[in-house]
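Notes from the 1:1 (GR / supervisor)

We went over the backlog. Supervisor wanted to see one worked example end to end before approving the batch request, so GR pasted a single chain during the call. The sequence is below; no edits were made to it. Supervisor asked that the structure be written out right there so they could see what the output format looks like.
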Amino acid sequence: MLKFFLLVLVSVFISACDPKVGTYEWCERVAHDDKSGWSDDQIAMFSNNCFVEN
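Structure output shown during the call:
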């Protein structure tokens, strides 16, 4: 039970540090990522929420 609690605690901590999808920080982080493995939903989220300058 303790291992499960620690796993949940670490997961919450990591997700709290990760920028939310669509925020400026998220867009900056993923702007230069390799998108070849992205799903259609991930591509749609990026294109709908982020403005990329050429």
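Supervisor's comment: The helical segments are 2-17, 24-30, 40-49.
Batch request approved.
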